[in-house]
Amino acid sequence: MIKRINDFLAGLPMTIVGGIFLVMSFVVPKILPSNIFILLWDPAWVTVIICGIPLLYLAIWRVIYNKGISKISSALLISIAMIAAIAIGDLFAAGEVAFIMEIGAILEDMTTNRAKKGLKKLISLTPTQGRRITDDSVGQEEMIPADQIRQNDLLRILPGEAIPVDGIIIQGETSIDQSIMTGESLPVDKGIGENVFCGTINRFGSIDIRATKVGEDSSLQKLIRMVQDAEGRQAPMQRIADKCASWLVPVALLIAVMTGIATHNIVRAVTVLVVFCPCALVLATPTAIMAAIGQATKHGVIIKSGEALEKMGRVNTIAFDKTGTLTYGKLEVSDILSFDSNMSEEELLALTASAEAKSEHPLGKAIVAYAKEKEIAIKDSDFFRMQSGKGICAEVSGRKLYIGNEKYILQCGIMISPNAKNALGKLRIQGKASILVADDTSCFGLLALSDVLRPEAEEMVSKLSGMNTDTVLLTGDNPKTAAYFASQAGITKVKADLLPEEKVQSISEIQEQGNRVCMIGDGVNDAPALKIADVGVAMGSMGSDIAVEAADIALMSDDISKIPYLKRLSNATVATIKLSITLSMCINFIAVTCSVLGILNPTTGALVHNAGSCFVVLIAALLYDRKFE
Predict the structure, then answer these.
(1) pTM, whole model, 2 decimals?
(2) Beta carbons within 10 angstroms of residue 586's beta carbon
């Protein structure tokens, strides 16, 4: 019951009522003669009750339930100051202390609630039901609650409907609005075999999906949990500020007692209590952190903790994995070279794809996929044999073909022409995988495959360099491939042929040189490096669950151009926290000095001190809508 009354009194409407009575308490003595009855019936008593009781309740609760120095809080100091002001008969000062403190708390809540809009939007978009297919042969469906959907259930998603679980499309094509997950403004085209995520919106065609991740395992629920976890974790600056606040309270009491004894003026002692409270110091970090996390959530960047955000602001070296991070992580045919003047590139591709049609090797699959994309006719092979790690032998339209690496072609007794060798050398320098195509008489063709650098990579690295942030590539690829992609992206420091434990060692070496390192990766093999780095950033859209769990920050799309945005946001957050703490300490020092000298009284002291607290909150609130592009 007491808590309910306390929550009711702490609300904005009742605080406004308290403000009205506070004004009345200033006006009434000017109209009516000052006597004991005016003191007893001073309207400021209403303000003290409405705004002071929540404060007193909080102070007592912390003394009873908190442990250690956290028992001594800013609420306790303000409560003591309020009671002291009442004791000396300055009801207006007592009411003003409680009122402005309550206004500061409401402003903090408003900032926090605004910063949580991203999380609230995520929660509100959690689908409540889904359309399960019970008999596909007759098109029978049933609407069921989303929590009753099980893995491998078949679901139908109509245009305009939210997707209730993570799944894979088994029928139909559509465009999906994934903005809630990735921040992408345009719908993404999806077809059979592609993944869709819980909470995203089906914009156009009807699709059937098979549920892959349901309930708490869905992408949306993981996203919500990460944001909730972020709100519960304190940044290092916040812990330091809270600890300082706990020690400042007894210091304030000591200075107030000494002031009262030295000046023989109890009013000055009470004023010291009023202005000494470290409210602005305590508010500086959490309000800035919450505003920044809210801003990042809007842009598809999930920051798991205030500590990660603060550390990101201090990072001076960013290490990148290559595959799936700087590149798309998907091999594509990049070069088709025919050494036979009678055979066109298209004919060479058709012949190679036909031979590789039964291959399980990633390079073979990539060639077949590329041929299908180019609408090249693929023929059945009459014979197929694969030699692991070397190549294949197949017969297409009566022609026996040998397709593989240089060593395999030579083992088959086929000579490789100087032109082919020169082409192989150039492609190796570019970090491309090459496949030679030959028959019983000669090597007549070459296909090269390569991962594709993300088009935004070079500009991203350039922006980071402009922020005095070094970049380094840590990859398991061979040195030539690593060097080629690093040069394309503008990265000058490269470490290649690294196993997962060697990536960890490389990051440790960079840290030992006095650097603060951020690691960006997407795969299971990146998880140890993400953990050991000062800040780990995972590519949340295509990255593995293990990598996302190991990281401190997750990008919910594959857009690495958000890395400079994240760095700017982190820098601005740290700068805002430092500015707010500096301002709060300066205001406190000046106000205490003026209180001891008698320049401020409890009324003006409360106004100066609490104005500083409100100012700090408003500075933090500006982070939420600031542009960092």
Answers:
(1) 0.63
(2) 12
Q: What is the mean pLDDT of the chain?
A: 78
Instruction: Extract the tokens encoding 147.
Output: 């929590």
Cβ 306 vs Cβ 230: under 8 Å: yes
Number of H helices, E strands in the chain: 25, 22
The answer to whether 321 is a known catalytic residue is: yes
Residues 6+ apart with CB under 8 A from 394: 354, 355, 356, 358, 381, 383, 384, 385, 400, 401, 403
Helices (H), 453-561: 457-466, 479-489, 500-512, 527-532, 545-550
> Per-residue confidence at 215, pLDDT binned at 50, 70, 90?
confident
Q: Which two tokens stand for residue 229?
A: 């976890």
Q: Closest Cα partner for 546 from 555, 538, 557, 534?
A: 538
| Pairing mode, strands 207-213 and 166-171 | antiparallel
Do the beta carbons of residue 249 and residue 73 sit within 8 Å?
yes
For residue 291, name the pLDDT band (cuts at 50, 70, 90): confident
CA atoms in the 13 A half-sphere facing the CB of 521: 33
**Rounded CA separation 460/488 (Å):** 12
Can you state the angle between helices 479-489 and 418-429, rounded to 10 degrees? 60
**Is the CB of residue 197 less than 8 Å from the CB of residue 180?**
no
Q: In what order do the strands lie in the sheet containing 493-495?
A: 301-303, 553-555, 535-539, 517-521, 317-320, 470-474, 493-495
Question: Over the stretch 13-44, which tens digit does the pLDDT of each residue have?
Answer: 555 555 555 555 555 555 555 444 444 466 77
Burial class of residue 440, CB neighbours in 10 A (0-12, 13-18, 19+): exposed
How would DSSP label each residue in 83-94?
A: HHHHHTT-HHHH
Is the model's pLDDT at 8 over the cut of 90?
no
What does the alpha-carbon distance between residue 303 and residue 332 come to, in Å, rounded to a whole number? Answer: 33
CA distances for 535 relative to 312, 326, 474, 577, angstroms: 6, 18, 15, 19
Q: At 361, which amino acid appears?
A: H
Per-residue tokens: 176 = 């999906």
Question: Which position among 42, 90, 177, 321 bears the catalytic label?
Answer: 321
Question: Which of helix, strand or coil describes residue 132?
Answer: strand
Residues 6+ apart with CB under 8 A from 447: 333, 335, 336, 337, 348, 349, 352, 367, 434, 435, 437
220 SS3 class: helix
Residue 497: Cβ within 10 Å count = 12
Q: Note the Cα 613 to chain centre separation in Å.
A: 28
Distance CA 493, CA 510 (A): 12
| Phi and psi torsions of 190, nearest 5° | -135, 145
**What's the whole-number mean pLDDT along residues 351-378?**
88
Tell me the CA distances in angstroms from 454 to 164, 300, 324, 325, one per residue in order. 31, 18, 9, 8
**Cα separation of the two ends of the chain:** 49
- Which DSSP string corresponds to 245-302? HHHHHHHHHHHHHHHHHHH--HHHHHHHHHHH--HHHHHHHHHHHHHHHHHHHHTTEE
Q: What is the DSSP letter of 78?
A: H
